[in-house]
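A quick word before the example. In earlier lectures we treated sequence and structure as two separate objects. From today on, think of them as two lines of the same record. Here is Thioester reductase-like protein written that way.
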Amino acid sequence: MSTTYFFTGFPGFLAANIVKNIAIQNNEAQFKLLIHPSQMDKADKAVDRLLTDGLLHREQFELLEGDITQPNLGLHEITLESLRDTVNYVFHLAAIYDLAVPKDFAYKVNVIGTGHVNDWVLTLNNLRRYIYFSTAYVSGERKGRVLETELQMGQTFKNHYESTKYEAEVLVQQIRSQVPTTIIRPGVVMGNSQTGATIKFDGPYFAMRFLDKFAAFPIPYVGKGEATLNLVPVDYIVNATSYLAHAEVAENKVYHLTDPSPYPVREAYALICRNLIGKEPSWTVPASFISSALSIPSFRRWTSVEKETIAYFNHPADYDTTQAAKDLEGSGVSCPDFADYIQIAVSFYKEHRHDPDKMIPVR
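And the structure line, produced from the sequence above:
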């Protein structure tokens, strides 16, 4: 009997890559992909791309129109009945990832949506694992060492993305005693370390967009840059998640899929400058000055940089990866060094920086 995987968040970057990875490893697997009505066309094209090498077949993939913000995921009872006995693995990745997202929208998708997925997961009869995608930044404003085993530590948050992902993980942790669960907390996701490929230029790519605007001038460091910048390439997240989702040792554990040896912001920023514009930063501007400037809508839109990004260049949190390192031992999966793939990431950015589909609009 084939294994059946259910995904939310397809055709998003992480979900699409994990589906492809698992499908290549198990070309008899079946995939039930919950697709928001607005994403059906994109999802259909994404499945077509998975079939181009001839190893996979269209009948392995079923697109289910639904919505996690609705009870029963917006699915018909006949579909729910069919899934109840066939689904073996559930990957919940659907969420709002925008750092500038309004609170009500983030809460509806990230918290209420996760509650609905949890309720549905509890009805499944042959579930082997529930894999929930959280974020390392459920730690909020906490400083210092952050453990994988910690969550509710009285922390405050930098934005509604963090706070609602925190509330969502709290809900998932509440059902761990009833459902075999693995929680993944990625750092800031970069493109593929081998190809540079990514579907959008956000996160650390905002630094590249900023540098594009000021390349002709002496380049400043933004703040002291003493904190570390936790960047991880998508292939590490995909390979680690695919392994841990099926590993018995990973049942009912939480993993920081973050860089075990992150670079200080100052060093990471200098590496980006060197590879993107061929020069070093030569002076320092206070982070508060840049943050204030980005509060001006016209300046923010001109630079194409979200104000909320600046907080992640100055926050001194250290994400412990002890549990991830131990349970990935022997799998052949490890996090590449940022210095080894930044040139590839920058080259991809240069090639595609005028692609409107990859340039996240800044309000």
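Notice the following. The chain has a mean pLDDT of 94. We will return to this example when we discuss secondary structure assignment.
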